[in-house]
Request: fold
Amino acid sequence: MPHDDQKISRSGWRLLLKGNVIWLGVVSLINDTASEMIFPLLPFFLVQVLGASETFLGLVEGIADSTASLVKLGGGWISDRFQRRKLLVGIGYGLAAVARPLIAVAFLPWHVLVVRFSDRVGKGIRAAPRDALLADSAPDNYRATAFGIHRAADHAGAVLGPLLATVLLIILGQRLRVLFALAAIPGLLTVLVIILKVREVIPSSDSENSARLLNDSVTGRHSGGESERLRPVGSLGPRFLCYIGVIAIFTLGNASDAFLLLRARQLGVALTLVPLLWGVHHIAKMLWAVPGGVLADRFGPRRAITAGWLIYGAVYAGFAFASQPWHIWALFVVYGSFYGLTESPEKALVASLTPQSIRGFAFGTYHFAVGIGALPASLLFGALWQAFGVGVAFLTGAGFALLAALLLPAAIGRAQKRIFSSGS
Reply:
């Protein structure tokens, strides 16, 4: 039996380390290199160069993420309806690659808002089809690990981007607009990789029937064939919707990371070191991504997610009471473990709770819940910071994380037990 387990393990890892899992990771690596050349510097460009307020910064980030969420819902449904996930992934990455560098020609705060809106529309188009394609491309027992590999590649790009930005800032003499324009080069490479390397996955009848039976065992009702494909809301199931509800509660306390960078500058981290700080943070996220997925596959995602949310609450409390620049560096490193313990497990649970025929819509619903809460979360955080100070803002975020961690076991505990015991 141990020999058979080792054989299965080797076979599963071989499937992960080729095909769509790897190439979608490469796409995310290149895309995040472009994105993270800009994002760590965007709060200061808005506030210090264009004269925007902290509240407007929250508005920009909130509208950007909420826009992406609305589009993700439609993008996921379309990819299910026509089974053309690769096309939507390519369109989404292409739109972002074209829109993002236009920040270089922004001269008023609302210009940045328009560019961020366009960039997030691209993200909204691609996110749910990409995650569904990734889930379809991975063995069931390695799904969280597959998402972990993808997130590790994504975070690797987020490390390269700030490092590249730091070098360019030194060479260019802090000419931010030129740096923003250069981000177009890696952005456009993503489209080329998608065209040449990413492949559609044709659903097999066996995996489709297996996924339907799994969904029936969790939701307590039967699938509806073609009508299910046309009316996916009715087939998501109560456990999935309870899970999404808890995700939404956590999201209300999860404001844009732009505020963390603003806090870093407030405590004396030099502007030229901000991209490096962001890169160190993403190194921590990258190192935790695969182990987080492996832990979720081994012990179930609920434990990993709960641990991650508790770490998030502790880190936000730390940002509230930090008083020295080294505190910020330490907190950013620890903050990376929160992402490793939540990003891949959350997505793996979405895939496990839904059949393949509506998986795109399920991921769209998940991304919608995360993103639609971004606007009130960022606005609330910015308003609390401006009215009551940084401590109240960060402690409020920590409180939402603690509440979500307490509610998660009641929402999905029994569903998780039934799902993962069936696969053992």
Observations:
- The chain has 19 helices and no strands.
- The domain at 9-196+231-422 is CATH 1.20.1250.20 (Growth Hormone; Chain: A;).
- The radius of gyration is 21 Å.
- The longest helix spans residues 390-422.
